[in-house]
Amino acid sequence: MKKINSFIFCFIITFISNVVFMSSIIANNVNITNTNLVFEENYNCNIIPYQEDTICFGDSIQLNTSLNGLSFQWSPGGSINFPFIANPVATPTQTTTYLLSVQTITNNLITNGNFSSGNTGFTSNYTYTTNLWPEATYYIGANPSTYHANFASCTDHTTGTGNMMVVNGAGVANVTIWQQTVTVTPNTDYMFSCWLTSVTPTNPAQLQFFVNGNQIGQVFQATAINCNWNMFYNVWNSGTNTTAIISIKNQNTILSGNDYAIDDLYFAKYYTVFDSAKIVVLKPQLQISNDDTICEGNSANLVVSGANSYLWNTGQNTAGISVSPTINSTYTVIGSDIHGCVADTFVNVYLFESPQLSFSLDPYPAKGCAPLTVDFTDESTPVMQSFLWNFGDGNTSTVQHPNHTYLTAGNYDVSLSVTTTDGCIGSLTLPSIVKVYENPVASITADHLQVPLSYANVNFNSSASSTNVTNWHWDFGDGLFLDDTSNLQNPIYQYLNQGNFTVWLVVKTVNGCTDSTFMQIDVIEDSLVFPNIITPNGDGFNDYLDIPNLENLDDNKLIIFNRWGKKVYEKEHYIPDDDKWDGRDLADGTYYYILKYKGILQEGEYKGSLTILR
Description:
mainly beta, Jelly Rolls, Immunoglobulin-like, 5 domains, nine-stranded mixed beta sheet, five-stranded mixed beta sheet
C-alpha cells in the first residue's frame, strides 16, 4: 500500500512569549534542561483537530507531535504500536480519529536551581565550608575532590563545567539539606525534581522531598557509582496553598560514606494538554461483472469499475477484457485509485458441457514387457454415436471399450475418434502412451566371495542388460534373521554367522519386467570374544584365559598388568589352547590386559579387566 498526503501532526497552543519545552522521559527519569518558561493562566485546554492525513488500507503512518512532555497517551491504542510515546506508528483499518493527552511542565520556580549563582537563593541546616571532612557540611563548587580528598572528581550535570552542591551527609535523619520558598497557585499540580550522584560509593545517600513539612513521594537513593547522575521527581498538588516551602532531606544516618552531590533542582506546574488527529483510510470500492457461463470456444466480456487503473491476472490493464477459457476459470483484477491505494476482486467464468474426449488404459501407465495386453475404456462425454480406435501398431477397432495385445517392443501412439449423437466430431491422440520393453538380464558381483565372520561385510553390485531397472530385491540367504533382505541397487550386508549363503537378486524394470540370478558367499571367521574372569581351580572349566577364535588371526600380542600397573605376563601370538595362561603364581583379584590383534580383514586393540577367582 502507498501512503499519500502525509502531514506533520502537531499541537496548537498559545503562549505569551517564546515558550520552549525541553523535557523528555529517559527510563523513569525526566530530563529538565530549560527553566525560562512563561505560560498563560489557561494552560489546560482542548485543541480542535486541525488536519486529516490520508493513507491506503494496510499502510501505516507515524503520528508526530512537536510538543515535548513527561508522558503521552494515545487512544484508541489498539492500532498503535506504542501508544505511550510521542511519535508512535498507527495502522488503522478504517478512518480513525486519534486523541492524545500530554503531561508536561511550565517554567522553573526555583531560584538558582543549578547553583550557578553559588551559595544563594536557598537555606540549609548543613554547615557551608570548603573543608567537607566533618559530616553535615556542604559546599557549592565545580569539583567534589577539591573539598574532600576521598571524593570523586565529578563534573556537574548541566554543562560539565558548572557548580553543584557537594554534601558530606549527616548522621541524623531529616536534616534539611536544601530549602527554598516559592509562590504557587492553589489547586494546581507541581513537579519537584532533582539530579543526584554519589561522590563516594559507600552507603549511597537516601533523599526525600518535602513540601510545607510534608513528605511527598518515596525515598530515592543514589547509585553506588561515582559521578553517575540520576534524576528523581514527584508530583504535588498545591490544594489551598499559595506558597510552598520545598526542601530535600537525607534519610541515611550511616556516617561512613553517605557523600553525594545534587544539581539542577526544578519545581514547576505539571499539567495536561490534549489534541487529536483524523486518519482517513482509503480503499477502492470495485464493482465487477457477475459470474458468466459460456460454451467452449466462445468468449466472455468482463468489466470492472470503481478505480482509476486496473491490472488483470491475464496481464491486461484495461477496465474491460475478453477471455476464451478452455476450462472453468477465475479472473482476478487489482484496481488502483488516484492516491495509489489498491483493492482486488475476481469473477468466475464457467463452461457449458461440451463433447470432451477421454479414455483410460489398464494397466496405466501402459508399460510392460512383450506380450503386453492393454484394456481401453472410453470415458468421453456426452453420449457418443460411433468410435474408431487406432492402436498405433497397424491395428484398429470400432467397439467402445476394446482390448489389444502388443507383441513387439516399441512406443505406440493411441488415437480415438468419436462422433456425438448431435454430429459433433472430435479426436484425441495420446503420443507414446503404450511402451513395450524387453525383459532385463540380471547380473551380480561381490567384493569378496569368502569373508571372515569378524569382518563379514560384503559389498554387492548389480548390473542388468536393461537401463530401465528401478527395483532390486536382495535375499542374502541368512535365514536366521528377518532383515536379511535389501532393496538397494548396491547394498552392503554383514553376516553374523559362519556358513555358506546363497544370495538371490531379483531385478524389476520401470515396466514391471523381472529377472533373477544368484551367487554363493562363504563366511569363515568368527569374531573374538573377550572374557573378564577365569577360575583356575582345576575343574576343567574356565581354567585359563581363553579368547575364542584368536587362533584364526595372523598375529596378536597379549600383555597383563596387576592393579598397580606392573606387567605380570606378556606373549607374542598368544594361542589360548596352547599357552593356557592361568595366573598360577598370582593372587586372586582383578588384573588388566591389553590384546593387540591383526587378522586377514581385521585388526585392533582391546583393553579390559580380568578377575582371577579360584
